[in-house]
Amino acid sequence: MTQLTLPAVAKLNLFLHITGRRTDGYHNLQTLFQLLDAGDELTFSLRNDDSITLDCNNIALINEQNLVIRAARLLQKYGKCTQGCDIYLDKRLPMGGGLGGGSSDAATTLLGLNKLWQLNLSIDTLAELGLSLGADVPLFVRGFTAFAQGIGEKLQPLQLEEKLYLVVTPNCHVSTAEIFQHPDLIRNSTPIHDADILTAPWRNDCQPLVEQLYPIVAITLQWLVEYAPCQMTGTGASVFAAFPDQTSAQHALAQLPPGLTGFVARGVNQSPIWPALADTE
Ligand SMILES: C[C@@](CO)(OP(=O)(O)O)[C@H](O)COP(=O)(O)OP(=O)(O)OC[C@H]1O[C@@H](n2ccc(N)nc2=O)[C@H](O)[C@@H]1O
Ligand SMILES: Nc1ncnc2c1ncn2[C@@H]1O[C@H](COP(=O)(O)OP(=O)(O)O)[C@@H](O)[C@H]1O
């Protein structure tokens, strides 16, 4: 095999409760990660030398800081690999939207190059490598909808109803680091017990602060709530609501006010990367 094309799906945080702050500045949280069937796509092509290159439909993303490049270099070093690759990233997800696009791209890179370079590293090893790139990366390496604790890396798979979601992104970029550093962030929520995950009230502790700092997020939620109960995902700025069917979701999408972008996607319990990887066997 010399070439591989794989999806890098988005996630929603159906709830996000922040239960404390660790001494290293990271926050302990409890969150319900819902994978979606929509996202970016990456193509990996084997090279004869050890160079790693990135091309992308968004030229602003072609740089050494891209999580795709960082994941590829990390894996090449860890796996003592003498091969390189050319990577093409088809960026489709909004960035800085709390949809985990960068983390998902990194995870797909780890999984894809593990296969292309025939490193045979375990999923546990890839998840651990991924955690050094970002708190969300292990979720996408494992590729299942999950209840997460710790800083987001302690994952417990969950089977949820695979609902249809409308995801709406206002034209603003929310920095995850800015929100977690803010003095007004709610960071003392009472932890919920595993048994109460599906019944406890679902809310996002970052949402009140983000609505205050970025009024456009509050305005977007006010628009969406006219159609269905809605919430913010991650540290924003994207918001989402579940719809009973394609017709009603597409109808709301068609009414989007100027300045907002959106897409409809289905929640999935397992990432489509698993069947895609299996097809390459
Ligand atoms: C909080 C979540 C919920 O999904 O937000 P989103 O990024 O999706 O919006 C994620 O876990 C984020 O994951 P990720 O985006 O990979 O975070 P990282 O790069 O590791 O960290 C970005 C910044 O957020 C802070 N951070 C992140 C995760 C966490 N549990 N506590 C934190 O305090 C870190 O201090 C860091 O400055
Ligand atoms: N492959 C990538 N895709 C998107 N963003 C990336 C990528 N690599 C690095 N980044 C950086 O990470 C930031 C947050 O990206 P993203 O994962 O889309 O947001 P979030 O963590 O809010 O879901 C971007 O603004 C960008 O600077």
Would you mind describing this structure in some detail?
This protein has a single domain, classed as Ribosomal Protein S5, domain 2. With 281 residues, it is α+β, with helices and mostly antiparallel strands. It has nine helices and ten strands. Helix 1 packs parallel to helix 2, helix 2 crosses helix 3 and helix 6 packs across helix 7. Strands 1, 2, 3, 4, 5, 6, 7, 8, 9 and 10 form a ten-stranded mixed β-sheet that branches. The model has no long low-confidence stretch (mean pLDDT 96). It is 29% helix and 30% strand. Helix 1 links the parallel strand 3 and strand 4. The chain is globular and about 55 Å long. The site of adenosine-5'-diphosphate has 16 residues, from helix 1 and helix 2. InterPro entries: GHMP_kinase_C_dom, GHMP_kinase_C_sf, GHMP_kinase_N_dom, IspE, Ribosomal_Su5_D2-typ_SF, Ribsml_uS5_D2-typ_fold_subgr. This is 4-diphosphocytidyl-2-C-methyl-D-erythritol kinase.
**What's the CATH architecture name?**
2-Layer Sandwich
What is the count of structural domains?
Answer: 1
Bound molecules: 4-diphosphocytidyl-2-C-methyl-D-erythritol 2-phosphate, adenosine-5'-diphosphate
CATH hierarchy class name: Alpha Beta
CATH topology: Ribosomal Protein S5, domain 2
Largest sheet features:
10 strands, mixed
Beta-strand residue fraction: 25-35%
State the secondary-structure class: alpha+beta
Mean pLDDT: 96
